[in-house]
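<amino_acid_chain>
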Amino acid sequence: LTEKQLDGLAIFRKDSQILSDKQVAVYKDGVRTVWEVPTDISAALNGMNKFSAHWIRNTIGLPSQWLRAGATLNPEFMARNISRDTFYGAVYSKNTFFIPIVSSIRGLFLRHGKFNEKLYQEFMKSGASQSHLISIDQRYFRDGKMIDALYSRKFHNWLNPTKILENLRAVSEYTEVASRLADFELTMKRLTKQNEKLPPDKKLNYRQILHRAGFEGRDLTIDFRKMGYAVQAINQIAAFFNARIQGNLKLWEGMRDRPFQTTTKILTWITLPSVLLWLHNKDSEAYKGLAQWRKDLAWNLPINEGTDKEFIFSFPKAHGLALLFGSTIERTLDSIYQKNPEIIKDFAKQYSWESMVGLIPIPEFSKPFIEGFANKSTFTKRPIVPEGLKNILPEYQFTQYTSETAKLIGKIISKITNGKIGSPLMIDNWVQSWFGGLGDHTMALMDVALTKAGIVVPPIDPKSDNWIKNLDDMIIIKAFVARNPDASSEYLTDFWTMYRPLAKQIATINRLKSQGRLEEYIHLFQKSEVELAFLEKFATAIRKNADFIRKVQASTFMSADDKAQLIDMTYLMMIETAKMANEQVKNMRKFKKELYK
């Protein structure tokens, strides 16, 4: 460069690079511009370098990593994952003879080398294993040590606390690989057979067959490693954002590439079981009383209904597919059978809303704050703190399912904050939001430790002498059993959903009347369903029953079996009360509608 050019660069640097305390540099499409901003904003933005931004992103993303680990390492998740993957795989497999459950069970034995010792080595060489959900946070995939790490892994040291998480990872991968490995075997056989019929110049070599089979095995369900830089960044703060996108994309690809085969398999493995179970359950009171989220996310079959050996088998459905092609059909049949068009309308609104919200990446870091503020679980759509506990001190907001650890922490927080916060129900929800099912198990272990240490003295846990009644409390088994009767009954949810807005309307009407604001009073009175004011008596009765259950739970002189029987009996009374109220409202609205006609 000449001296003149160097002088020009020096002047350029001075004018554009050195910023005042009220300026920030902004790059858009590679073009640098300088913006005038307030001093405090420029100080914050100019201090935001790559290192600090990376640190902030990683810090906010920690709950996302915790949740992924806590969800995937939870034994119940592993059990449910096989049941979801087996139907998902049956729909999207290019192999005709991939049969749900049967093929996945075969895959478990293939993984263990019982049927074909060489096949699992071929599966690993093909790269199909890198699609697992558990693999997202694994270092050995990035470090090139995948084969060594997985081949050398053994199930051992279960009592060594330092090996517990590693063993849980091994089991989780064991369950995730089942369906993929079974499909890999079928694909290898199919491609080998097809290859024999090809002319010599078009035959595939062993490596090409292996790669193709590996890709189909990896792409059988959701390939959790399939994401670009943008989604990868979002996935660091929203744990399962990519899984939702890939689920929708998988359906689109199936319909685009193999429309007839995909449609036929959906009707066979998703829609047909849903219709058959609906025909079986349409008049079942046990089924009707289940929470709606459980009906949508699982196939439910009441066993021994009406006897002392009754329980509900709940088999998880394939995410996305089952909701669209199974639950939609069930709701439509409900709407026709009950002659209630509102059922399908409400479902359409709910499905449309949740599909839209599902595409918004909500950081896991913020979810407990949002749910706590709204007092509503984003998963079950039910209040975190039940109606009967909302107006008492936070430290006493707990049910029979609340952990003793959360109660203890709640008391401490309540003392520190002078009773403003410290709800044990909120604390348990916080743990579940950030650590998933494994967080619940950790809290249960801490309960045992605190009890053994004499720090807490928990009341006797309700347990029935009839072991069938306790299935929903048994580890792993509870993944396939629905609790019944329960406070999450659809009848109770429908009642509170209907009652809450009405209670606010009536309270507002009474206030307007007492203030002499007659014009507003008359306007709201004519607009509201004041004829449903009788629901207040039903609400009072349900609250009293809920309060009685809490007293039974806290009892120190009743046996575990007596508690279990009394609690179940009271829940049945609550459900019947809600059911009666819902029926009266339905009849009254129907009569009112006919009267207007």
Observations:
- The longest helix spans residues 560-596.
